[in-house]
Amino acid sequence: MEPSRWPEVWREGRELYTRNAVPGTKVYGEALRSVGGVEYRGWDPWRSKLAALLLQGPPAELLAAPSSALYLGAAHGTTASHLSDLWPAASIYAVEKAPSSFAHLLALARRRSNLLPILADAQLPERYRADVGEIDFLYQDVAQRDQVRIFRENAEASLRPGGRGLLMLKVRSVTQRKPAGAIVRESRTALERAGLAVQGEWTLGPFSKEHVALAVRR
Predict the structure, then answer these.
(1) Is 31 inside a domain boundary?
(2) Is the pTM of this model over 0.90?
(3) What is the DSSP string of the chain?
């Protein structure tokens, strides 16, 4: 087990791991490894778009620890649980609107004090803005047609000036009628018009072929 270029991410060959904040507990059936008295959780790129992104080799500062983060579309908490491992001192607000998924997220948060679940629709940031306050990092994995608008409005509501964000853009959820490259270009333009400088772009194949990750700074 060796440290990677990203803080608190470990690797063995091409396999990624995070230190398990709740030793002995799995979140989604991932592998557990104990090395030198420390337990690590396998981070599956087929289940987590953020793990798929790391295998594309983005810069180390991509995962620099924030003091607070807002995660839109947290679902069952697969990726959110790894962020909880990576950022033990951060407050991670995890928004999910589906009650069935939220139940899993709530159970996960009972064991992870830095994970703060919110049952809400990411399209309505005004409903949770007061609870979240100003954040340092915005992460979104929402497969909807208006996903770029959702990201922009949440950034405008909560992301501090200088704050960072990651948008996992599901290209074919935007439209089926345009080439993928055109959709990405239009999405970048929309983000930049909202004051979000796009600092990186990565495709997530072969793990998530319809997704492009866009890293931004406000």
Answers:
(1) no
(2) yes
(3) -EE-SSTTEEEETTEEEEE-SSTT--SSS--EEEETTEEEEEE-TTT-HHHHHHTT---GGGGPPPSEEEEE--TTSHHHHHHHHH-TTSEEEEEE--HHHHHHHHHHHTT-TTEEEEES-TT-GGGTHHHH-SEEEEEE---STTHHHHHHHHHHHHEEEEEEEEEEEEHHHH-SSS-HHHHHHHHHHHHHHTT-EEEEEEEETTTEEEEEEEEEE-
